[in-house]
Amino acid sequence: MRKKRLSVILAGLLLSSLLVLGACSKGKTDDSSSDGKIKIVTTIAQIAEPISIIGGDHVTVESLMGAGVDPHLYRATQGDIKKLENSDIVFYSGLNLEGNMGEVFASISSKKPAIGIADSIAQESLLKDENGAVDPHVWFDIDLWKIALGTATDELMKFAPEHADEFNANKESYFKELDALLAESKDKLSQIPKEKRVLVTAHDAFGYFGRAFDIEVVGLQGLSTEDEIGISDIDDTIAILTEYKIPAVFVESSINQSSIKAVIEGAGKQGLDVKLGGELFSDAMGDAGTTEGTYIGMYKHNVNTIHDALLGEGN
């Protein structure tokens, strides 16, 4: 009897163990991607949307920072940390754009690929301010952004080599669209007289854009929106507007408009009628699901808005 009782107990323990293991296995399946797709989390949408095209049916891509979000000031939430931990690959821009997330990236990179895609761009191609800080807004130089997106594509090909040919084909097709966008943008912006090609914005996010299209860029703030705006910054900007008779200045979708409005008011006191040329997308794209929520659509919006305003064709 004693031996029989022991057998029953052992059988019960074995059954319990199997049930526990089954429950654990079920939980693991629920937490992982059941469709076999590569789960990618990015910081900014300028990475997420193009990578969703390049990755095609083999990826799911989520951006932590949506429309109107300033990456310079962004701090990761607990929800963000969970998304990063549950991902297969993390792509961020780098070059200190997401300055408050450095420790998060360092931690995540010890567990999975976490790539600052713009960090792959050669240093000699990057712009720097007077203090030597690198300008991180490289997506406004289409050729440089192709390099960064190429780095992300290489990581995808390494992660899923069985789909490498498809990833590469998607990249090449998308890059042809970017080449056409660059040619179209150059043609349109070249229509602005040289003396009118002055782009005044809230912060210095358009340096690469200006270099690409021979436009002088004046940002009230420095490369980061954490930089302070002084009275002298506003006065110097008004002086430039007055000297070159620039007809319009621009606000940014992710930046407070008060400084630009101060410039407009100050120029008015100097006898210059400066209009608000429109809203540009700088550190963030438009709402997901809209034309401006795509990289190409956002870029075209900026080009058209600047073209119309500086030629006096805007509102």
TrEMBL record:
PROSITE patterns: PROKAR_LIPOPROTEIN. Gene3D superfamilies: Nitrogenase molybdenum iron protein domain. InterPro entries: AdhesinB, Bact_metal-bind_prot9, Lipoprotein_PsaA-like, ZnuA-like. Pfam families: ZnuA (PF01297). SUPFAM superfamilies: Helical backbone' metal receptor. Residues 1-22 form the signal peptide. GO terms for cellular component: cell envelope. GO terms for molecular function: metal ion binding. Keywords: Metal-binding, Signal, Transport. It is found in: Cell envelope. One of its GO terms (biological process) is metal ion transport. This is Zinc ABC transporter substrate-binding protein. It comes from Sporosarcina thermotolerans.
